[in-house]
Write the structure tokens for this entry.
Amino acid sequence: MSDIKITEVNCRSVLNRSRIPGIDYTLNPYTGCLHGCVYCYARFMTRFSKCGLPWRKFCEVKVNTDAVLAKQLLKAKKGRVSLSTVTDPYQGPERKYQLTRASLIRLAEAGFPVSILTKSDLVQRDLDVLKSFNRESCDVGFSLISPDDAVRAAFEPGAPAIQSRFEAIKTLHQAGIRTWVFLAPVLPVITEKGLPELAESISGFADRVLVDGLNIKCGNWQGINTILSARYPSQLAEWRAALFSEKKKGSYYSCLAGRIRICFARKGIRVEFC
């Protein structure tokens, strides 16, 4: 981690209008993310960073988040807030800076509903704050691509272990927090193979599953290709056919959607697609 740079910055705004259906505002206390997911679509955020480092190598901490949010909430119309859309609100620096926790406290006091999306079990630290929201005003989603931690190590090297996410889902659910799983991005072959185990692991603890495909238009294919060539070379041809073949383009995910629905329906879990 010696090549990772964490810097403190000031921001002018943290509560920003959203174009995501069902979400009125986004709140990203950090720029950059240290989970190191090779497939990440948010690498475009490098254009907003002044550090000059490539994606996955930096995290800018918006240290004045609490003060800026407090000021914005005085004028903002109430609406649902997503934490976060282009970073993980519970990545490593959050342990020290607690910007996400402070933001949740502000939003709860102001009566703004929240939807949290993370890969981290650190969210359990803030269970006391999450409980301060009305049940219908707070939900927590966990991003997953596979139940296999070897897959996590290959594609999400800096992210928390898969089992820790399963345990966090269970803990929050049992505490009365609405929980869900973001099955994204769906990786050809790999995610499909893990569907039965994933459905079993979250059965009874996740209220729903939201599914999204893999975006390869954001400069991430080179990193993905490197991982596949090194660890999953036998799958490379299938990935290329699913993602690049004009004949099969689009058909892979459309066919897989049905299998995903059936798999989770057997466990009584509702499935939605982005």
The mean pLDDT is 94. The two ends are 34 Å apart (CA to CA). The first helix runs from residue 65 to 73.
